[in-house]
Design a protein that fits this description.
The structure is a single chain. The protein is of the alpha/beta class. The protein is built from 8 helices and 5 strands. The protein starts with 8 loop residues before the first strand and ends with a helix.
Length: 178
């Protein structure tokens, strides 16, 4: 693995509903960082909810738009929560790899499924082709999350506070080398 101690940001990747936005906001508060949620940044740029943008332009064009937004980030000392589909763009992920330590929040499929029990998948704006199941998306993305991660944090059976503390601990070790 390449040296990560010269990167000044933290990026959180993982499946939709794994807690990236909640965890990211808490990490940013604790470490006095700026918090960026790329899903919100996309919504602000295009003036519509993710699901609407996805419905209007389709999966392929959405991934291109998401990648452009991510690659336009100009930040130092930020905690960035990406959308679950960010890993579909090599360009976006390679950009993030240059500016940040990438942490994969790994939540098992049964727990992802539980979190979706009361959520309309369409309303979350999840990139998935017709005929594809949440399980298919999970298995496809899991490989990509692992590919790009500098660190993987196992999220099953851990509280948000435990996950935040674990990630802060990782980043604090890296920061000592800066």
């Amino acid at each position: 693995m390449d040296k990560v101690n010269n990167r000044k940001n933290i990026v959180l990747i993982g499946m939709t509903a794994c807690g990236k936005s909640t965890i990211g906001a808490l990490i940013a508060k604790e470490l006095d960082m700026t918090f960026i949620d790329t899903d919100l940044t996309i919504q602000q740029k295009y003036g519509k909810p993710l699901w609407q943008l996805l419905e209007d332009v389709g999966s392929k064009e959405f991934i291109i738009k998401e990648s452009k937004v991510i690659c336009s980030l100009d930040c130092i000392n930020c905690c960035i929560a990406t959308g679950g589909s960010a890993v579909y763009s090599d360009e976006a992920m390679n950009f993030l790899k240059q500016i940040a330590v990438i942490v994969y929040i790994n939540l098992s499929y049964p727990n992802v499924e539980k979190r979706f029990a009361d959520i309309d998948i369409k309303s979350r704006g999840i990139v998935m082709d017709n005929g594809t199941t949440l399980f298919d998306v999970y298995n496809e993305r899991k490989i990509l999350y692992s590919k790009y991660a500098d660190y993987t944090i196992e999220a099953d059976d851990k509280s948000i506070e435990e996950l935040v503390a674990q990630i802060i601990s990782l980043f604090s070790k890296e920061s000592k080398c800066i």
